[in-house]
Specification:
The complex is a heterodimer of chains A (286) and B (264). Chain A is α/β, with parallel strands linked by helices and 286 residues long. Chain A contains 11 helices and 8 strands. Chain A starts with a strand and ends with a helix. In chain B, strand 1 and strand 2 form a beta hairpin.
């Protein structure tokens, strides 16, 4: 195991760990992998998944870097006014600059779960060094599938019913909102909760446009959806058809991991996810 | 803050050193001992905040990941209680060397507090702060297994049995080997009679009689001990109604104030 901790970026405020391949597997033609934070979890990922993945990918010959965006894990908050959507793209690019300056690497593959998937996707739309992305549970906007899934989840959960019996549930309030929420499929800048929250203002069309940019730039995509995430229903509703027209055989793969939860909590699913990514990397980049 | 690896080459540990605020330097150090598994994932932010507050008050602080946890070397299945108490000793030495100080205290959360209390028996430790310490290992193991089972029950897409079960016990995303479980089951702080530190703080938000019994036990072993009940969320677990709580301020303030109390 060959890992090194780095401080990098402006004022060396970002913290990351690089996992290097064994000397006999170093290949400058291979892209390096960058793992982006999943929500607020620090760089080790849910259940230490990023550490496991980084070590497996390094053993397979890929330099793999996991780091914390500003305000997450060990990297302190930024002092400027950039939104997370802006700073995450900027910092993912700073991470690529940094790895290129330390290792003989020209191309990158970005991966992340949930918000990390979104950051990987939009960084790839802007940076030509990115050869591939592995977004996991990409894109949660309120499609009808998302709403139905989310209500179903709460209605059928034992915790939900235990909350009803103990008087803690907001289920009746929630049911009242169903018709309005089902109508509010598309969120526009005018209806978004927070003016600065650009993730809420992006339409599905904007995402489809992103897919077209990636397709045009030859970026390989490995889209992975867990059964536990409503993101899958967004994918079905918004992206399945547009993606079919984007020459998916050569460039885009979509995997649905039956029975996996959003955090890949079970060891079986962790191993399955790592194998899936490792095989995809080997197929396209070895 | 400076992050680095330390310890023996084959078992490198991840460490994050927070230097004491220069104008308030107390020439005292604090090693923070994390909980394990999912509890660590959830508590990471609170522990970082504790380190920041303590360094702001003049302590030199070292956060670190035990072997086979976080960014340290080792696969998650390779964790063991004996390894981790040894890791605490290594972290204490590292902080002494790094900051050039001799007076070191320990603060730990959940199983990290238990490990701190056990490790301190063989170390020259000034103070020991125990945050919701695990007193009885058997009870802890059954509690975390129950939490895992409750999580499984709550899944809408329940995985089939062949996926749910694995060679090792799994607890909310982390494997527990059979030998590790046996080590945990043997833990009982009420049966240990070596003094851990001269002064001990116990804080807890669930069971007043339990911490009072532990306080008396530590006092019988010759330590000065203070026990306090606190309110607020248990940050290491997902608790209903507390999703918006960002920081367990009462617990953090209690620990920081107690550690700052003058010994003289």
């Amino acid at each position: 195991m060959n890992e090194k901790v780095w401080h990098f970026g402006t004022n060396k405020s970002l913290v990351g760990v690089v996992a290097d391949p064994p000397a006999d597997k170093v290949d400058p033609n291979k892209p390096a992998i960058i793992l982006l934070n999943s929500g607020l979890l620090h760089r080790v990922g849910p259940s230490r998944l990023h550490v496991q993945l980084a070590r497996k990918m390094a053993a397979d010959g890929f330099i793999t870097f996991r780091f914390d965006f500003s305000g997450i894990g060990d990297s302190p908050r930024r002092r400027d006014e950039l939104s997370f959507d802006e700073s995450s793209i900027l910092e993912a690019r700073v991470a690529m600059d940094f790895i290129s300056s330390k290792r003989d690497v020209k191309k990158f593959v970005l991966s992340g779960i949930c918000s990390g998937a979104d950051a990987a996707f939009f960084t790839a739309c802007e940076d030509s060094r990115i050869a591939g992305i592995v977004p996991i549970d990409l894109f949660t906007q309120f499609s009808k599938g998302y709403m139905i899934e989310s209500y179903k989840k709460r209605l059928f959960s034992t915790r939900g019913w235990s909350n009803i019996l103990t008087g803690k549930s907001d289920i009746f309030k929630m049911l009242k909102q169903v018709p309005a929420n089902l109508k509010a499929v598309k969120i526009t800048p005018e209806t978004a909760d927070e003016p600065g929250d650009t993730s809420q203002t992006l339409s599905a069309e904007r995402w489809v446009e992103g897919f077209h940019i990636l397709n045009k730039n030859g970026v390989k995509l490995c889209l992975i959806y867990s059964a536990g995430s409503p993101a899958f229903y967004n994918y079905r509703q918004h992206f399945e058809k547009p993606l079919q027209s984007l020459n998916p055989e050569n460039q885009t793969r979509v995997h649905h991991m039956d029975s996996a939860d959003h955090g890949f909590t079970l060891l079986f699913h962790q191993a399955q996810l790592i194998t899936l990514i490792a095989e995809w990397m080997r197929f396209y980049f070895s | 803050m400076n992050c680095f690896h330390f310890g023996e080459p084959a078992k490198q540990l991840f460490g994050a050193y927070h230097a004491a605020h220069p104008s308030r330097d107390r020439r005292e150090g604090l090693v923070l001992c994390n909980p394990i598994g999912q509890e660590y994932m959830r508590a990471h932010r609170a522990i970082l905040e504790l380190a920041n507050r303590l360094s702001g008050c003049g302590f030199h602080v070292l956060r670190f990941d035990y072997f086979a946890t976080g960014d340290s070397h080792g696969a998650s299945i390779d964790g063991s209680i004996s390894q981790w108490t040894g890791d605490i000793a290594a972290a204490v030495e590292e902080l002494r060397d790094y900051a050039g100080i001799s007076r070191i205290s320990l603060a730990g959360m959940r199983l990290g507090a238990t490990l701190a209390a056990i490790a301190a028996e063989n170390l020259a430790i000034e103070k020991l702060a125990l945050w919701d310490v695990v007193i009885n290992g058997k009870q802890y193991l059954s509690e975390v297994i129950d939490m895992h089972d409750a999580w499984l029950k709550d899944l809408l897409h329940r995985p089939p049995p062949e996926i749910r079960h694995s060679e090792n016990l799994q607890v909310l995303g982390f494997p527990f080997s059979a030998s590790f479980c046996r080590e945990i089951e043997q833990i009982d702080l009420m049966q240990r009679h070596n003094p851990s530190a001269k002064k001990t703080l116990i804080i807890n938000n669930t069971n007043p009689s339990e911490i009072d019994a532990l306080r008396k036990h530590f006092e019988n072993n010759g330590a000065l001990c203070q026990a306090e009940m606190i309110t607020g969320a248990r940050v290491w677990r997902k608790e209903s109604g507390y999703s918006s709580v960002l920081m367990p301020n009462e617990a953090l303030n209690t620990i920081v104030e107690w550690l700052q109390k003058d010994d003289k």
